[in-house]
């Protein structure tokens, strides 16, 4: 009888762990959802030009790049609960700076806080739920996480558009409320659900920084031996470079049309998320997931980017953007599958970290260059450059794979 009660209590605890995990993920990602459609428009409303806007957006990427591995080491030192709460505090600081800030320095500080928050959150909640549930349960909850986040991103994106029409800075106020709830739950609920686990080996921050150098050194050696893996990393990096101007400039381009308010931009965000889910669904039906398939899909994605530069009505441009997003729904999981398939098991973690670093660098450089080109010439110019680049690289790789 006592054993059954123990099993029942454990089952209830595990259920609460899963529910808390899902809720915290939704609260953290709420910022991305509610600001996704209108963030760039907010920066434009504060007088920033295309170059300054891209620089602000890119700042969070470089912050994540430098902090991700040291943040993981700090999580080992202070524990999952404190790390989770710290990510919430940084996210709250981000929203406060955007809500009250009115200049470039405040926005850059906000983006640095955002990058640090994402670095501290990255993998922390995943590790926590794995440690405090069974392996089979954690696999199930990860599937639920993706579904919950998809629904949350759609609803919060629509909400963001409606709020922005009422009060543009209000999107950060609602995101701040979400951050405060995130901090409260992490401090009040997470400790009560934890179980005593085996003591883990802790890394110092200096060891983590040394680990970055080791990752780069080992990965370069591995890629020099395995040219196929290096080609995939380079291809994915150029892909990130080519598509970044669409991510940044889609909302300003739609918003320039007459009678298009923030609510309509929010609806467009919803359609974009649905288009990407549609691309995911198409890939699920495709059995062959090869580098050739990635090259072919990327080529057509490049054509869609190039085509955006020549669409001059709201509906034609919106349909073009949705087509682009549908291609990305195929490309994102496909490029991960292709890379993971080619890497040998013993080198996977190291090379994947190196891959993330290189892609982040290309993405950052693209935002700076494309922002400057948009300021000098036009947004359409950046789309033409990105499209032509992706078409060229896609066709080149297409030919190599056929040979």
TrEMBL record:
It is a multi-pass membrane protein. It comes from the Bacteria. GO terms for cellular component: plasma membrane. The chain crosses the membrane at residues 21-43, 55-73, 106-128, 170-190, 229-250, 262-283, 290-311, 317-334, 354-375, 381-399. GO terms for molecular function: transmembrane transporter activity. It is found in: Cell membrane. InterPro entries: MFS, MFS_DHA3_Transporter, MFS_trans_sf. Its main location: membrane. Keywords: Membrane, Transmembrane, Transmembrane helix. This is MFS transporter. It comes from Sellimonas intestinalis. The lineage of its organism: Bacteria, Bacillati, Bacillota, Clostridia, Lachnospirales.
